[in-house]
TrEMBL record:
Gene3D superfamilies in the record: NAD(P)-binding Rossmann-like Domain
Organism: Pseudonocardia charpentierae
Top-level taxonomy: Bacteria, Bacillati, Actinomycetota, Actinomycetes, Pseudonocardiales
NCBIfam families the record matches: PRK06123.1
PANTHER family, per the entry: OXIDOREDUCTASE, SHORT-CHAIN DEHYDROGENASE/REDUCTASE FAMILY (AFU_ORTHOLOGUE AFUA_5G02870), SHORT-CHAIN DEHYDROGENASE_REDUCTASE FAMILY PROTEIN
Name under which the protein is recorded: SDR family oxidoreductase
CDD domains, alphabetized: SDR_c
Superkingdom per UniProt: Bacteria
Keywords per UniProt: Oxidoreductase
Domain Ketoreductase: 3-183
Family under the similarity heading: Belongs to the short-chain dehydrogenases/reductases (SDR) family.
Length: 248
């Protein structure tokens, strides 16, 4: 049976690095994206050019119907999913809690945490031995923000990642005897274009001196931990968190 991996938000940043690295380790990869088809196409092209298997699927993973279509497409094209990385996520412009509104909160929470629940549901239905599946592994891409709270920047984003941590803990126990491991990584200050969406493209450069290691991280450094957690090398690891934030 081959390893079939879905990476949500796999077209750019951390998700793209995970997709590329997992493909080199033999996973057939579904690169999910929401709107940047060109970026996802380039990731798929790099993987297939190197002899791997990948294809891209557009789906807004905050929407249940689109998540169901995503998983059904993978069933058909690659076979039953054995690994899921809940990576898709967004930030919103930096600000204080007293500047927030309902529209922003709905977008942040549906994109960052509803998506992880909806995708985990579809994955468990296919992986769980209780549902006749072979088992599998889920890795949630949380954030150092879940520990630090992101005051003055985006407490709402940090809270969505706090929910991701709780999902990791609860689901890991729920399915521990059904062959599924659930873990999380908590990156911080990683060099991707996400910071531009928060209104500050140079955010990592401005803040990296605050980290004990004195530098920001690269998406590939996060991918190494994600792919390890997915792998059989981590066969006794569940409900765990790896902090990838330069020591903070
Ligand atoms: P990024 O470069 O902005 O990439 C985000 C990815 O998520 C894109 O591929 C985007 O798709 C996808 N996406 C967004 N909303 C989606 C939706 N509704 N449905 C499907 N895909 C969606 O961000 P990144 O920095 O790599 O972040 C990846 C994850 O790491 C996020 O969960 C983020 O919170 C977390 N993280 C990042 C950092 C950091 O410093 N960068 C630190 C801690 C945690 P399109 O390309 O189609 O737009």
């Amino acid at each position: 049976m081959r390893n079939v991996l879905i990476v949500t938000g796999g077209g750019r940043g951390i998700g793209a690095a995970v997709s590329r690295l997992a493909a080199t380790r033999g996973y057939a990869v579904c690169v999910n994206y929401r709107s940047d088809a060109e970026a996802a196409r380039k990731v798929v092209q790099a993987i297939t050019a190197a002899g791997g298997t990948a294809f891209a699927v557009a789906a807004d993973v905050s929407r249940q119907a689109e998540v169901e279509r995503l998983f059904q497409t993978v069933d058909r094209e690659l076979g039953r999913v054995t690994a899921l990385v809940n990576n898709a996520g967004v930030v919103a412009p930096q600000g204080r809690v007293d500047q927030l509104d309902e529209q922003r909160l709905t977008r942040l929470f549906t994109t960052n945490i509803n998506s992880a629940f909806l995708c985990s549901k579809e994955a468990v239905l296919r992986m769980s031995t209780a549902h006749g599946g072979p088992g599998g592994a889920i890795v949630n891409v949380s954030s150092a923000a879940s520990r630090l709270g992101s005051p003055g920047e985006y407490v709402d984003y940090a809270a969505s990642k706090g929910a991701m941590d709780t999902l990791t803990t609860g689901l890991s126990v729920e399915v521990a005897r059904e062959g599924i491991r659930v873990n999380a990584v908590r990156p911080g200050f990683i060099r991707t274009t996400m910071h531009a969406d928060g209104g500050e493209p140079g955010r990592v450069d401005r803040l990296q001196h605050l980290l004990p290691m004195g530098r920001g991280g690269e998406p590939e450094e996060v991918a190494e931990a994600v792919v390890w957690l997915l792998s059989e090398a981590a066969s006794f690891v569940t409900g765990s968190f790896i902090d990838l934030a330069g020591g903070k």
